[in-house]
Amino acid sequence: MSDDIKKGLLGIVVDETEVSKVMPEINSLTYRGYAAQDLCEYCRFEEVAYLILNKDLPNTIQLRKFEKEEKNNRDLSKDLYSIIKKMPKKSHPMDVARTAVSIMGLEDKETTDSSEEANMRKAIRILAKTPTALAAFYRIRKGKNIIKPKKNLNIAENFFYMCFGKVPQKEIVKAFDVSLILYAEHSFNVSTFTARTITSSLSDIHGAITGAIASLKGPLHGGANEEVMHMMNKIKSPNNALKWINNALDKKEVVMGFGHRVYKSGDSRVPTMKHYMFKVAKLLNKDKYPKMYEILENEMLSKKNIHPNVDFPCGPTYYMMGIDIDFYTPIFVMSRITGWSAHIMEQHASNKLIRPLSKYKGEEVREVMLLNQR
User: Fold this and answer.
1) Is 230 in the active site?
2) What is the pLDDT of residues 289-318, one digit of tens each?
3) CA 102 to chain centre
4) Residues 58-105: tens digit of each pLDDT
5) How large is the average pLDDT for residues 24-53?
6) Is residue 202 a contact partner of residue 351, using CB atoms and an 8 Å limit?
């Protein structure tokens, strides 16, 4: 490969952003300058969503207004509920999320208005409705009645309520809320860059987020949290973990939940999510997952010097909460809508069509022969 080709745009800076940055000086992912782990400690997801969309943390009045608008837009149209009911029960929830957001674009009266004000309103509507759509499908495929959203619950509580009909202990809700904060934004990752590329053609926010969801579905991006849990279920017990991981490494197999394009000395989000994973395990008396986690983590570090990424603790955390494995990446979607929306608005504010070059390596100029001469 020629030295001037950067596969995967590795090391290429394509634009500027004010939304987030991994800051080496404090070894942290930051949103608008705030360390993600500090936001997990002191804020709820709604506050962080406001921050990402509005560039600063809200005061009490601003947060109350933001939450009211989000809660007032949670319910779906009768048509969208009907469409979700008719979706094949074997559909992957990521495909449901992608389709639901696309339909929201068909229904939204401001779809063609890409002004910052309209995009902000649409972003809040998509943020509000997506958990409802996912929870509706969660119930439908189990043969259960849809549970409509409640306005007196926050986003994390409401998702549990719509899926299970009840809100779990506050410690469970807090761990889930922390995962939403940590998944909310991560600069120019694959799905965000997809959203910005779509936006650069002056397409609408629903279309850009639909494309981002399709990008996030892949196991090399958002789908990794699902693969982590499938891996742990294969291992079954901490007693099998050491043998399994060494066998996988001997065969040069990919171990999901480890490594990251940006972080070379460890994903800064992991310590926070690991802490809450262990809290959930202790609360629910499910210590086999922390034990398995530590064996895999230690072996990967000692043998390959590869650190876990945030998907590694998120997978078992969601599993212990009783959430179906194929819903882990859709939860990622629920959160990342905030980051995608912020980047879409940033792209609109200073837009240039994203159109990279490619180096041709096919056949040289050839003469077209007549059909009877070929």
Assistant:
1) no
2) 999 999 999 999 999 999 999 999 999 999
3) 17
4) 999 999 999 999 999 999 999 999 999 999 999 999 999 999 999 999
5) 95
6) yes
Query: What does DSSP say about strands 34-35 and 28-31: parallel, antiparallel, or unpaired?
Result: antiparallel
Contact 282, 295 (CB under 8 A): no
Instruction: Name which of 239, 302, 307, 322 is nearest 270 in CA terms.
Output: 307
- Output the CA–CA distances (angstroms, integers) from residue 197 to 122, 252, 371, in the order listed: 19, 34, 41
Catalytic residue among 311, 326, 343, 348: 311
Amino acid, res. 66: F
Tokens of 124: 């809040």
pLDDT band, very low/low/confident/very high, at 26 (cuts 50, 70, 90): confident
Measured between alpha carbons, how far is 229 from 318 in angstroms, rounded to an integer? 9
Cα separation of 258 and 311, whole Å? 8
Mean pLDDT for the stretch of residues 175-193: 96
Amino acid at residue number 23: M
Residue 240 CA, distance from chain mean position: 30
pTM of the model: 0.94
User: Positive or negative, the Cα torsion across 230, 236, 239, 244?
Assistant: negative
Catalytic residue among 260, 307, 343, 348: 260
DSSP 143-204: T-------TTS-HHHHHHHHHHSS---HHHHHHHHHHHHHHS--SS-HHHHHHHHHHHTT--
Active site residue 186: no
pLDDT at 263: 65
Tell me the pLDDT tens digit for each residue of 105-119. Answer: 999 999 999 999 999
Q: How many residues in total does the chain contain?
A: 374
Buried b (16+ CB within 10 A) or exposed e, 58-88: beeeebeebbeebbebbebeeebbebbeebe
| Catalytic status, residue 311 | yes
Per-residue DSSP letter, 21 = E
SS3 35: strand
d(CA 2, CA 7): 10
Catalytic: which of 92, 95, 221, 324?
221
- The CA distance from 26 to 52, in Å, is 20
